[in-house]
């Protein structure tokens, strides 16, 4: 398999774009900085306090060696000369006190910094998750769950690493750095200037590193997301993977992605591998220069030997914290790339937006109107060219038509998964775009073609329809759709765990649970998108009988290929290529000579005992 | 885990050499400084100044180079290791059977493949080396102290005792908590994944708030446990800083007494305390590194948990030269791992080459389970399944699975190009073969997609209509040209007209292959030559549709459309 072969497997989609221009990258940085600011703002006071605490802590810890020196210099001679241990004892007491202060402040700092960090992480997690939930389906259609997961796991971790990576070390380092710089200049201006001369070089070097690493870390974020996407999808579809012997090819793709991720990481680590010793080199060269120049000055008597000795000591102290700072800078860059990605998500506006002044329906009646609605998923390929339709409240409408005609699309528009490109969809005369989310969801429930069960018990899953339902109501809903029998036969009845994606249940059983869920929700408008396609005939019949009682007083849109469902409808819509081609009560359509009559005949043939087998 | 480390062990040790050398040079450079002050400057010897300065420069450059070398080598080694374990983990997961994947949340698997592996990488890339350097430093300094004045040295060594005891205790508790955090993060990843895959259902019921509640609970759990971790480590870190400081105070006190009684010179005491100060930082850094190490260890445990799971379903060595596809179920029983009752028992069924059998049964009767036994997605718990006389367990998995292709009841598509989805089972299919398979499944719509076969379809094929997904999955199964074709209720989402067209085309395919068709509708049953009725977990009747219709009331109840409704209950 060639290299290109393992690159093209994903196929083409509209949203693909890579390589950011300088300008965009600047925008990204300022956007993520804004997010960081927003996250930190509530903790302004804590952060100031933290800095104060760490300063005290450092002072205490620096005091100890000093006190020891004092103890030896001033405490021991009096003792030796028999004047008693008073000074020594007080010095020892001071050491212990300093140790106590250091311990106390350290403890306070670690806990407080830890709490602030964890609080920020929690807030970030909540924010991003809530935002993902708010974003519309058109976003999720392209984004894939793997990328959602990677944002909420690996990106968050990169930030968590920064929050944990010795913020105290950074403060200490900066303090030591400025303190030492001042000291150097005070000791000797000329020599001090020489010692500080490389600072501009250091700044340039740091800028180079920042530029390079922001590109590289962005790459690590992107490559790890692809690794996660592929991983999640192969695990979700592992049944097909194994049945179709897809393993070798998957392995090939995964190794490729994994190697890309490694390469991005290697690149990042190499940048640090250059940056860190680079900083060290600058420090060491400076030390050598100071030695030479200082030695020369000392020879000429311009500086004292003592000053020179002090310089050498302090220079080491000056360049040592640089390592710490660059280490922190590095995790900061990595977290910065993650923040960029997260702020990108948070910046996305839901295509289906919540109205500013939401209208509420009290109570909803369930009249649906399409006024000159046009819809397309991709520009230029209209799925619904122009749709005008009124469904009076309380009517049961069957929607039939060839596959891909746009039935599900119509249903999704009623449930406002998408907004029409032109025209409007109205519920009880209110444009769906003006209706509050709560109000809409309480009024309209859609049972999708691909029902999804969540980890949890059968009861939990049914209860998703109405979280505050009692157990009795849950059981009643299950009974109504004919799910009760199989549920009670499960080892733990309603409390049986349905397993990953409902894998513990059969396809038909999953459909029944999804159905019971909708039943429990009890909306004014119920949309069933092939909700009985996987049921056996008796099961389907049972569901239909239940529907007949339920649907008596509510609007229903029933999409089905099995025309048996049509029996319970008062009206049939036949759809073809995004248009409604026939509309009327079922009896009349069956008697006519249109498409529905043909469909109905074909269907009767297909279920009768003596079919005309085509040969 | 050891087996992973072994090839890298020499390399990791090699990396310690420049590291140690670098530390050595770091100590030597100040000595050169002292040399300059004591030598040329003190003696006024300008000539020696330059060479010594150049020496300092050279040493400085070498130190930087050694750091570069160390980091460069380390990044290769450590990332290589991480990547290899991840590859192996993925490979292993692909081999583990459906029963494993049913029981394990994908978030847990994912967090092992990402979070845990990077914890291991961080420790090996940074922590391990530091641990060695620090340990060396602590031992040397303590040794020097003992050598300098053994009673005080002993005191310092004894002060290490509480450090060791507390470290061990801390370790035990910390491992618990860190494992808990890792597990909770895995659970959280699961919630995230489900909320993303199930977003349509969530939106349809307007349950965003409810799902957010579930996530929030998980996130708060992680927060709580992480805070527990913070508290634990804050206590431990503080303790590690207190011990050397208190020891220092004691040393000062006792040292003063010793000096007072003439056992010790003042100079030695100065040297002793100065040297002792060098212990403060390494001991406090120890805490941080131990924490890292523990996290890496629990992470490794979690990873090994998966890697050590033996795949229960491994292929035999048998190959069938010219498979005909003669399929037999012989007294097959199947029981899910934790179930009390078998789903299938004593199933006998024979499908001859070229023949097609429909399996009919009520919802949840075990049809899908039955079909999944043939390609060994599950293994029978008693009895056996043979193909051309070979027990399927004797055949190698590639042989077996290339003979059997299944179109699942759920299409199971991937967010990649249509072509890649289509050729899932046969990567080398020609354009011609693809066209034919598309034709059979009436999946011509793929040509109308914006980029044709190269169009990426959404996750789980979500950018296609229900019927389109099903037809693509059907085309995928047909394309592999299997000896045994299993269709698990694969026409349920098609309209009557399209269904008729697909059936017509399938008849041709099924003529040369052995077919198993799971069906709920009479129209699909008619694809088959014979029908097997699955009742109460076993096959009770086999025969042509009409016969069963006439003679078996249970069968009639399942398939007849115009049975009196009230008669059902
Ligand atoms: N998310 C999407 N992005 C792009 N195109 C889409 C998307 N969803 C559906 N389509 C396309 O829109 C058309 C109508 O799809 P829709 O799901 O409404 O069909 P349907 O009538 O429900 O068919 P079926 O009976 O097979 O479920 C199809 O051609 C489909 O490929
Ligand atoms: N992992 C599992 N553990 C325990 N029981 C299971 C598991 N998976 C399925 N079952 C049970 O096994 C039985 C058979 O399931 P199966 O999926 O084979 O049914 P089916 O005949 O295909 O039904 P459908 O027509 O609804 O697809 C069901 O009652 C189901 O609850
Ligand atoms: Mg549809
Ligand atoms: Mg099934």
For this structure, the quaternary state is heterodimer
* Shape, principal axes of CA atoms of chain A: elongated
Named CATH architecture of the largest domain in chain A: Up-down Bundle
Number of helices of chain B: 17
SSE series of chain B: HHHHHHHHEEEHEEHEHHHEHEHEEHH
For the largest beta-sheet of chain A, the strand count, sense and barrel status come to: 6 strands, mixed
Which CATH first-tier class of the largest domain in chain B would you pick?
Answer: Mainly Alpha
| Binned strand content of chain A | 5-15%
Largest sheet of chain B: 6 strands, mixed
Low-confidence stretches of chain B at least 5 residues in length (pLDDT < 50)?
563-569
CATH superfamily of the largest domain in chain B: ABC transporter type 1, transmembrane domain
What is the global morphology of chain B? elongated
Our Rg estimate of chain B from Cα atoms comes to 36 Å
Strand arrangement in the largest pleated sheet of chain A? 6-7-8-3-9-10
Tally of separate domains of chain A:
2
Annotated CATH homologous superfamily of the largest domain in chain A: ABC transporter type 1, transmembrane domain
Q: Ligands bound here? A: adenosine-5'-triphosphate, magnesium ion
Average of the residue pLDDT scores of chain B:
88
Pfam family, one (chain B): ABC_tran
Protein name (chain B): ABC transporter ATP-binding protein
Membrane topology (chain B): Multi-pass membrane protein
Domain ABC transmembrane type-1 (chain B): 19-295
In short:
The complex is a heterodimer of chains A (615) and B (569). Chain A is built from 20 helices and ten strands.
What does this structure look like?
The complex is a heterodimer of chains A (615) and B (569). By secondary structure, chain A is of the alpha/beta class. Chain A folds into 2 domains: 21-347, Up-down Bundle (ABC transporter transmembrane region fold); 368-607, Rossmann fold (3-Layer(aba) Sandwich), CATH 3.40.50. Helix content of chain A is 63%, strand content 10%. In chain A, strands 6-7-8-3-9-10 form a 6-stranded mixed sheet, with helices on both faces. In chain A, strands 2-1-4-5 form a 4-stranded antiparallel sheet, covered by helices on one side. In chain A, α1 crosses α11 and α15 crosses α17 (507-521). The longest helix of chain A is centred in the middle third of the chain and has 53 residues, at 247-299. Chain B is of the alpha/beta class and 569 residues long. Chain B is built from 17 helices and 10 strands. In chain B, the strands form 2 sheets. Chain B has a 6-stranded mixed sheet with strand order 6-7-8-3-9-10, with helices on both faces. In chain B, strands 2-1-4-5 form a 4-stranded antiparallel sheet, covered by helices on one side. The radius of gyration of chain B is 36 Å and the shape is elongated. The model of chain B is unreliable at 563-569 (pLDDT under 50). At the A-B interface, α2, α3, α4, α5 and α8 of A face α1, α2, α3, α4 and α5 of B. Bound molecules: adenosine-5'-triphosphate (2 copies) and magnesium ion (MG) (2 copies). Chain B: Residues 19-295 form the ABC transmembrane type-1 domain. Chain B: One of its GO terms (molecular function) is ATP binding. Chain B: This is ABC transporter ATP-binding protein.
């Amino acid at each position: 398999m060639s290299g290109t072969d393992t690159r093209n497997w994903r196929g083409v989609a509209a949203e693909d774009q890579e390589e950011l221009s300088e300008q965009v990258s600047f925008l990204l940085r300022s956007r993520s900085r804004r997010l960081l600011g927003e996250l930190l703002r509530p903790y302004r006071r804590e952060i100031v306090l933290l800095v104060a605490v760490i300063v005290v802590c450092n002072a205490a810890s620096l005091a100890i060696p000093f006190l020891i020196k004092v103890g030896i210099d001033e405490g021991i001679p009096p003792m030796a000369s028999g004047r008693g241990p008073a000074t020594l004892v007080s010095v020892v007491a001071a050491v212990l006190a300093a140790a106590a202060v250091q311990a106390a402040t350290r403890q306070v700092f670690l806990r407080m910094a830890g709490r602030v960090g964890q609080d920020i992480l929690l807030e970030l997690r909540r924010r991003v998750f809530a935002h993902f939930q708010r974003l519309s389906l058109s976003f999720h259609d392209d984004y894939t769950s793997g990328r959602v997961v990677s944002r909420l796991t690996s990106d968050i971790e990169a930030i968590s690493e920064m929050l944990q990576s010795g913020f105290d070390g950074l403060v200490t380092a900066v303090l030591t750095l400025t303190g030492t710089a001042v000291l150097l200049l005070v000791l000797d201006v000329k020599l001090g200037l020489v010692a500080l001369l490389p600072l501009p070089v250091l700044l340039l070097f740091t800028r180079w590193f920042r530029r390079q690493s922001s590109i590289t870390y962005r790459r690590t974020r992107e490559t790890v997301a692809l690794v996660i996407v592929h991983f999640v999808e192969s695990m979700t579809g592992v049944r097909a993977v194994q049945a179709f012997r897809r393993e070798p090819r998957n392995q090939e793709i995964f190794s490729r992605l994994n190697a890309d991720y490694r390469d991005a990481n290697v690149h990042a680590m190499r940048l640090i591998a250059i940056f860190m010793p680079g900083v060290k080199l600058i420090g060491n060269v400076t030390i050598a220069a100071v030695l030479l120049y200082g030695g020369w000055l000392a020879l000429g008597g311009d500086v004292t030997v003592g000053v020179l000795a002090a310089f050498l000591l302090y220079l080491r102290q000056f360049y040592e914290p640089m390592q710490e700072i660059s280490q922190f800078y590095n995790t900061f860059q990595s977290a910065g790339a993650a923040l960029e990605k997260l702020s990108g998500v948070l910046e996305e506006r839901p295509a289906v937006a919540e109205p500013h002044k939401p209208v509420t329906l009290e109570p909803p009646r369930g009249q649906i109107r399409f006024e000159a609605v046009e819809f397309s998923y991709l520009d230029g390929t209209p799925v619904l060219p122009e749709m005008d339709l009124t469904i009076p409240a309380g009517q049961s409408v069957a929607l039939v038509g060839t596959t891909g005609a746009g039935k599900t699309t119509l249903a999704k528009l009623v449930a406002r998964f998408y907004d029409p490109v032109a025209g409007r969809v109205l519920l009880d005369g209110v444009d769906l775009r003006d209706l509050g989310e709560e109000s809409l969801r309480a009024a309209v429930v859609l049972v999708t073609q691909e029902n999804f069960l969540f980890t949890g018990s059968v009861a939990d899953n049914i209860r998703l329809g109405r979280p505050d339902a009692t157990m009795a109501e849950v059981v009643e809903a299950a009974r109504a759709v004919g799910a009760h029998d199989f549920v009670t036969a499960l080892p733990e009845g309603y409390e049986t765990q349905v397993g990953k994606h409902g894998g513990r249940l059969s396809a038909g059983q999953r459909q029944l649970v999804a159905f019971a869920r909708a039943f429990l929700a009890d909306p004014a408008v119920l949309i069933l998108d092939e909700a009985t396609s996987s049921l056996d005939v008796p099961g389907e019949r049972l569901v239909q009988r239940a529907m007949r009682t339920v649907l008596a007083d509510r609007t229903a849109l029933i999409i089905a290929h099995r025309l048996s469902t049509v029996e319970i409808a008062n009206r049939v819509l036949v759809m073809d290529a995004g248009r409604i081609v026939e509309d009327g009560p079922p009896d009349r359509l069956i008697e006519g000579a249109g498409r529905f009559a043909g469909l109905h005949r074909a269907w009767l043939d297909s279920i009768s005992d003596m079919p005309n087998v085509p040969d | 885990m050891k087996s992973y480390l072994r090839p890298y062990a020499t390399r990791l040790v090699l990396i310690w050499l420049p590291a140690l050398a670098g530390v050595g040079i770091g100590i030597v450079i100040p000595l050169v400084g002292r040399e300059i002050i004591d030598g040329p400057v003190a003696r006024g010897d300008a000539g020696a100044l330059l060479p010594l300065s150049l020496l300092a420069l050279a040493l400085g450059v070498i130190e930087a180079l050694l750091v570069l070398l160390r980091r460069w080598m380390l990044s290769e080694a450590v990332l290589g290791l991480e990547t290899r374990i991840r590859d192996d983990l993925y490979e292993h997961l692909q081999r583990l059977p459906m029963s494993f994947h049913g029981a394990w949340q994908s978030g847990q698997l994912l967090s092992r493949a990402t979070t845990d592996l990077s914890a291991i990488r961080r420790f090996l890339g940074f922590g391990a080396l530091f641990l060695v350097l620090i340990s060396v430093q602590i031992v040397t300094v303590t040794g020097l102290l003992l050598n300098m004045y053994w009673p005080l040295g002993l005191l310092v060594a004894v002060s290490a005792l509480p450090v060791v005891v507390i470290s061990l205790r801390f370790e035990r508790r910390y491992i618990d908590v860190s494992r808990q955090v890792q597990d909770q993060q895995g659970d959280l990843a699961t919630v995230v994944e489900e909320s993303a895959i199930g977003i349509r259902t969530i939106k349809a019921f307007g349950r965003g708030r409810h799902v957010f509640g579930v996530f929030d609970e998980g996130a708060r759990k992680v927060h709580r446990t992480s805070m527990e971790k913070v508290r634990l480590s804050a206590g431990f870190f503080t303790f590690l800083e207190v011990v050397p400081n208190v020891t220092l105070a004691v040393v000062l006190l006792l040292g003063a007494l010793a000096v007072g009684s003439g056992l010790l010179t003042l100079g030695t005491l100065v040297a002793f305390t100065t040297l002792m100060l060098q212990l403060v930082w390494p001991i406090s850094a120890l805490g941080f590194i131990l924490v890292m190490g523990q996290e890496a260890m629990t992470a490794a445990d979690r990873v090994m948990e998966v890697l050590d799971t033996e795949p229960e379903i491994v292929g035999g060595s048998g190959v069938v030269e010219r498979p005909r596809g003669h399929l037999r179920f012989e007294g097959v029983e199947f029981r899910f791992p934790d179930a009390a009752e078998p789903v299938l028992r004593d199933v006998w069924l024979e499908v001859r080459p070229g023949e097609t059998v429909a399996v009919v049964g009520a919802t949840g009767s075990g049809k899908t389970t039955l079909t999944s036994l043939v390609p060994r997605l599950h293994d029978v718990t008693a009895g056996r399944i043979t193909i051309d006389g070979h027990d399927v367990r004797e055949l190698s998995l590639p042989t077996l699975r290339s003979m059997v292709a299944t179109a699942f009841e759920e299409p199971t598509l991937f967010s990649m190009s249509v072509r890649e989805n289509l050729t899932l089972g046969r990567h080398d299919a020609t354009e011609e073969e693809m066209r034919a398979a598309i034709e059979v499944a009436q999946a011509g719509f793929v040509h109308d997609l914006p980029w044709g076969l190269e169009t990426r379809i959404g996750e789980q094929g979500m950018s296609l209509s229900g019927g389109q997904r099903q037809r693509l999955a059907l085309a995928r199964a047909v394309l592999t040209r299997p000896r045994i074709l299993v269709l698990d209720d694969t026409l349920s989402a098609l309209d009557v007209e399209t269904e008729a067209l697909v059936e017509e085309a399938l008849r041709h395919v099924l003529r040369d292959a052995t077919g198993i068709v799971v069906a709920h509708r009479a129209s699909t049953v008619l694809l088959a030559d014979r029908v097997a009725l699955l009742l109460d977990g076993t096959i009770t009747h086999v025969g042509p549709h009409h016969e069963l219709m006439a003679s078996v009331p249970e069968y009639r109840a399942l398939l007849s459309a115009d049975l009196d409704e009230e008669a059902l209950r």
